[in-house]
Write a structure and sequence with these properties.
Elements lengths: L5 E11 L2 E10 L9 E5 L5 E6 L5 E8 L4 E5 L1
Antiparallel strand pairs: 1-2, 2-5, 3-4, 3-6
């Protein structure tokens, strides 16, 4: 399995009074969960502001970050 076949799915933003949560699921091309994925969120300066490991269903959640624009990446 290579990262070219992975998809970050259901990227959701929940805003609560100046803090945010980024949550979703990581699946491969046949929609099977990827449980070995680590998801990282970086701010525009490239600083990591949150990390999460996908659970047994491929779901992840990173909360308590300030509202704004971020990049989301994953590693296996």
């Amino acid at each position: 399995m290579t990262t070219g076949f992975l998809a970050l799915g259901l990227l959701m933003f929940a805003v609560q009074a100046r803090s945010a949560e980024i949550a979703g699921s990581v699946t491969e091309t046949q929609n099977h969960p990827v449980t070995s994925a680590q998801v990282s969120v970086k701010d525009q300066a490239g600083n990591v502001v949150g990390n999460a490991d996908a659970d047994t269903n491929g779901h992840y959640s990173i909360g308590g970050i300030a509202t704004g624009q971020y990049s989301v990446s994953l590693t296996l």
